[in-house]
């Protein structure tokens, strides 16, 4: 019978072997492909010395195809918990050095345990995808394992933040776990996501495409919108994870962390008084306005490359975490289209789930016109924004900068959709439509009867602009709470957030709402 000393030595030896995953050659191959190992990624994520592993001795029980003769350390995934900047976080990190990180019964159970414990203990979950897909030898057990993960992702949605780093291949059914999570970060060059790979596409559809052109980080960050961030390196990806977490509470029952301000919180920004051009056809960068209103250096954009006509992200205002929503006049004149509506609605619902107030910057001429948009379902997609804003119960503050026309004005969180405070600059234009479109419709007969139709059109344009190209009519109807000096926007937003921080709002009892997906 082994002594205690021998048992301890055996434990240390076996633990060291298992922690090496697929062994030195497999680790060297992982490095040569430009990727870190599962454990190296966790070393970068967690505060030094805080990671506690679970399931190191996990072992598969498959006997098919000679699998009973194969030893798969930790079953190809490292799971556990640790501290990220002092806060508890749960994780599961696929180990490509062990049978290409393929997922099967026990592998998936470890993922599920991390998500379950994240929910049970109220802590965020960070998952790492680097896998060759389902472990075919385990058949339906592999598929069932994926289903269990998807189920957990869905249960955890809106309870704890879920962040995924795609640092290697993620193909087939596996892609739906990242898609069900809150934020997807892809590493450029090594991260890949697709339902079917290039070989199958060529065989079935006759189309030739490379791995990266099909499902690389650039494609998903700019075209599909599946990835919220593209990182140049794994180190950058993990810095993004930490930055996202810094704006968020650990779970849906907590408020976001508030940071102490070193400088005067309500500083004026005189540049705002002249930033918006008088010519409505001249674009400007809405990000400059955002950066002058929020705490210096705190604006953190999400989905920057996708639907550039709409800006979303996080920021701090007087140390408070807020969600940012804004039209971007530099792209499509700031019109709302299908992709922008999806992008906005999803971020609204995320912020609402985790008690993050919404701050909206409005300069929107309308929904993007065109046959492609109509046939693509702009009505349904635009309705997502209306639904998301209306259903949100967190504090909602709206600042109308310039144009706010028609249904798009409503879709940008107007008073009727539950905005708690609506502020408007004197440059704001709140109307059913702009003067150039309205005058020919309203004064058709007048223009037709005029001796000089063009001169009369110009006269009517000025008259319409005087009446409607300002915020005062809306303020008279209490649809705008205050018309403010642009330079003092920050002060007014801080006051609005302070007033609304104790907001309590209940909605009618229901099993769930039915957002127009």
Model description:
The chain is α/β, with parallel strands linked by helices. The chain has three domains: 11-246, 2-enoyl-CoA Hydratase, Chain A, domain 1, CATH 3.90.226; 272-433 and 470-500, 2-enoyl-CoA Hydratase, Chain A, domain 1 (Alpha-Beta Complex); 435-468, no CATH class. Helix content is 40%, strand content 17%. Strands 10, 11, 12, 13, 14, 15, 16 and 17 form an eight-stranded mixed β-sheet that branches. Strands 1-2-3-4-5-7-9 form a seven-stranded mixed β-sheet, sandwiched between helices. β12, α13 (338-353) and β13 (358-364) form a beta-alpha-beta unit. α13 (338-353) runs parallel beside α15. The N and C termini lie far apart (64 Å). The model has no long low-confidence stretch (mean pLDDT 94).
What keyword list fits this structure?
single chain; about 525 residues; alpha/beta; 2-enoyl-CoA Hydratase, Chain A, domain 1; 3 domains; eight-stranded mixed beta sheet; seven-stranded mixed beta sheet
Classify the fold: give the CATH topology of the largest domain: 2-enoyl-CoA Hydratase, Chain A, domain 1
What is the straight-line distance between the termini? 64 Å
Radius of gyration: 27 Å
Q: Can you say what the CATH homologous superfamily of the largest domain is? A: 2-enoyl-CoA Hydratase, Chain A, domain 1
Number of strands: 17
Mean pLDDT: 94
Number of helices: 21
Query: What fraction, in percent, of the residue positions are helical?
Result: 25-40%
Question: For the record, what CATH class of the largest domain applies?
Answer: Alpha Beta
Shape: elongated
Uncertain parts = none
Decide which structural class fits the backbone: alpha/beta
User: Strand-residue fraction?
Assistant: 15-25%
Tell me the number of structural domains: 3
Report the sheet with the most strands, covering strand number, pairing sense and barrel closure. 8 strands, mixed
Judging by the overall fold, what is the CATH architecture of the largest domain?
A: Alpha-Beta Complex
């Amino acid at each position: 019978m082994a002594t205690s000393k021998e048992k301890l030595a055996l434990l240390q030896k076996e633990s060291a072997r298992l922690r090496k995953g697929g062994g030195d050659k497999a680790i060297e191959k992982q490095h040569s492909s430009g990727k870190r190992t599962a454990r190296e990624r966790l070393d970068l994520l967690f505060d030094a010395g805080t990671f506690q592993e679970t399931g190191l001795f996990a072992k598969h029980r498959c006997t098919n195809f000679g699998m009973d003769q194969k030893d798969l350390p930790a079953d190809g995934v490292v799971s556990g918990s640790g501290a990220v900047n002092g806060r508890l976080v749960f994780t599961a990190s696929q180990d490509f050095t062990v049978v290409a990180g393929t997922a099967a019964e026990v592998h998936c159970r470890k993922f599920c345990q991390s998500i379950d414990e994240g929910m049970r203990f109220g802590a965020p979950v960070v998952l790492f995808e680097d896998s060759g897909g389902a472990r075919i030898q385990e058949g339906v057990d592999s598929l069932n394992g994926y289903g269990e993960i998807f189920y957990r992702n869905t249960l955890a949605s809106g309870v704890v933040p879920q962040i995924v780093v795609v640092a290697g291949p993620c193909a087939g059914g596996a892609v739906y776990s990242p898609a069900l999570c809150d934020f997807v970060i892809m590493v450029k060059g090594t991260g890949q996501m697709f339902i079917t790979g290039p070989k199958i596409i060529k065989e079935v559809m006759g189309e030739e495409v490379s791995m990266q052109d099909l499902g690389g980080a650039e494609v998903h960050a700019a075209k599909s919108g599946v990835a919220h961030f593209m990182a140049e390196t794994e180190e950058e990806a993990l810095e993004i994870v930490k930055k996202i977490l810094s704006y968020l509470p650990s779970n849906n029952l907590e408020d976001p962390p508030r940071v102490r301000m070193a400088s005067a919180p309500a500083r004026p920004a005189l540049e705002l008084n002249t930033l918006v051009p008088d010519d409505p056809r001249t674009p400007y960068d809405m990000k400059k306005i955002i950066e002058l209103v929020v705490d210096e250096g705190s604006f953190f954009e999400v989905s920057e490359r996708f639907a550039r006509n709409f800006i979303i992200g996080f920021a701090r205002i007087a140390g408070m975490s807020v969600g940012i929503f804004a039209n971007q006049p530099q792209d499509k004149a700031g019109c709302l289209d299908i992709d922008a509506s999806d992008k906005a609605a999803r971020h609204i619902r995320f912020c609402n789930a985790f008690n993050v107030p919404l701050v909206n910057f409005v300069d929107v001429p309308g929904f993007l016109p065109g046959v492609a948009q109509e046939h693509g379902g702009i009505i349904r997609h635009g309705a997502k924004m209306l639904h998301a804003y209306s259903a949100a119960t967190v504090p909602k503050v709206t600042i109308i900068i310039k144009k706010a026309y028609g249904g798009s004005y409503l879709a940008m969180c107007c008073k009727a959709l539950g905005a708690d405070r609506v502020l408007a600059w004197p440059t704001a234009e709140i109307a059913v439509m702009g003067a150039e479109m309205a005058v020919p419709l309203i004064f058709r007969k007048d223009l037709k009867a005029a001796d000089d139709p063009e001169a009369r059109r110009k006269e009517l344009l000025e008259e319409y602009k005087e009446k409607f190209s300002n915020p005062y009519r809306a303020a008279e109807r209490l649809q705008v709470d205050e018309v403010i000096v642009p330079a003092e926007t920050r002060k007014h937003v801080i006051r609005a957030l302070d007033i609304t921080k104790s907001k309590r709002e209940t909605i009618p009892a229901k099993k769930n709402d039915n957002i127009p997906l």
